[in-house]
Amino acid sequence: MRILRFKDNRVGILKDGNMVVDVSDTIPHRTIKSPQQVMEEVIEHWSDYRKQFQKIAAKKKGVSLSRVKLLPPIPRPSKVLAAFVNYMDRPDRTSDTLPPEFFYKAPEVVGQGGTVLLLDIPPVICYHAEAELAFIMGKRAKNVKESDAMKYVFGYAPFFDISARGLTRRTHFLHKGQDTYACLGPWITTRDEVPDPHNLVVKSWVNGKPRQDYNTTYMAQKIPAQIAWLSKYLQLQPGDVIATGTYHEGLGPVNPGETLEIEIERLGRAKFQFKGNSPRKDTEWIPGVTPSSPPSGPVGITKV
User: Fold this and answer.
1) Residues 6+ apart with CB under 8 A from 262
2) Is pLDDT at 274 greater than 50 in this prediction?
3) 30-68: string of b/e by CB count within 10 Å (b at 16+)?
4) How far is CA 132 from CA 31, 74, 179, 183, 300, in A?
5) pLDDT for 169
6) Residue 56 above 70 pLDDT?
7) Cα–Cα distance, 187 to 76 (Å, whole number)
8) Whole-angstrom Cα distance, residue 252 to residue 282?
9) Considering only CA atoms, which of 273, 250, 138, 274 is closest in space to residue 201?
10) In whole angstroms, what is the distance from residue 280 CA to residue 70 CA?
C-alpha cells in the first residue's frame, strides 16, 4: 500500500496508481494531534489501519493524483539519519572496508513539489543532491538482532541527501544538516510491496537531464545491518527516516532555479525545486574532498 499526506494534513492512500482515497476520518482525534503524531499513530497500529484503509479504498473512487497537493509523507520525524559512504562504488570499497556510519539530517523534511533553500554560505563550492533509498521505521527498536531487523521496517520512500560542499568536514551539521536538506516522497510504500529493497533501480534528473542511475544491490551495509548497528546506540522510533547512502557516479552541481527529480523502482517519482540566494556554483571536483584525478574503477568520486 502507498500512504501519502495531502492538502491540510490529510492522510490518503494511492489507488490504481493515480487515484487518492482520503482515509483521514478513520484516525481518532486526528484534528487535535500534530501531523507527526497522526502518522506515528498510523504506523504503530498499521495492522489495524491497513484493514480499515482497504475497506475504504474498495468503496471510494478517490480523486485524481494530479489534483492533489502532496505533503511530506513524514512531516517532522524524531530522527532523520543518513548512511555515510555505504556503496561499493570503487574497487577498494567492499562490505568489509565500509563499516556502518551515520549522520543526522535536520527533521524539516521537504515533500513532493517542495522547495530546497540554498543559502549563500561561504565557502560553499557547490551543492549536490544524492539520490537514495530511505526506509521508515515501523516500531520502537533497541538492540535489535540483524536476523529480526526487517520486521521493524514500515516502508520505503525516495530520498535526496542535499549537501553544501566545501564546508568543514569535522561535522556534518553545516554541509548536510541545514533545514530542507532532506527531501522525501512522494509517498511511503509499505514493506510488503517491495520484495527486495536491495535490488531496486534508483534514478535522478536535474532540469530533465539524467544524473544518477544505479541499483541498490551495491549497498555495502544492508538494511538489517544498519538497523542492528543503529539500535545498539539509539532507540529508533516509529516514523524515523533512515537514508541508506548513494552510489556516487553521476553526481553534479545543483543550483537555485533548477528542478530536481528522483525515481525509485516500485516507490514512485518525486520532484523538488531549488531556490535561494546562493550564486551559481558549477564545480565538479572539490579540493580536499575528491582527488584531483579519479582512481581507476567504475567511479572515482569520494563524496558522501
Assistant:
1) 131, 158, 159, 160, 183, 202, 203, 204, 205, 269, 270
2) yes
3) beeeebbbbbbbbbbebeebbeebeebbeeeebeebeeb
4) 33, 16, 18, 10, 19
5) 59
6) yes
7) 14
8) 8
9) 250
10) 29
DSSP the chain: -EEEEETTTEEEEEETTTEEEE-GGGSTTGGGS-HHHHHHHHHHTHHHHHHHHHHHHHH---EEGGG--EE-SSSS-S-EEEESS-B--STT--TTTS---EEEE-S--B-TT-EEE----TT--EEEEEEEEEEEE-S-BSS--GGGGGGGEEEEEEEEEEEEETS-SS-SHHHH-STT-EEE-S-EEEGGG-S-TTS-EEEEEETTEEEEEEEGGGBSS-HHHHHHHHHHHS-B-TT-EEE-----TT-----TT-EEEEEETTTEEEEEEEESSPPP----S-TTTS-SSPPSSS------
The grid coordinates listed for 128 are 549536490
Residue pLDDT, tens place only, 73-95:
999 999 999 999 999 999 999 99
Q: What is the pLDDT of residues 31-55, one digit of tens each?
A: 889 999 999 999 999 999 999 999 9
pLDDT of residue 304: 58
Q: What amino acid occupies position 208? A: G
Give the CB-side neighbour count of residue 295, counting CA atoms within 13 A: 10
Q: Of the CATH numbers 1.10.1040.10, 3.90.850.10, 3.30.470.20, 3.20.20.70, which one belongs to the domain with range 80-275?
A: 3.90.850.10
pLDDT for position 99: 94
The domain limits of the chain are: 2-71, 80-275
Q: Residue 298 above 50 pLDDT?
A: no
The cell for 82 is: 543518513
Which pTM does this prediction carry?
0.92
Task: Give residue 294's pLDDT.
Answer: 34
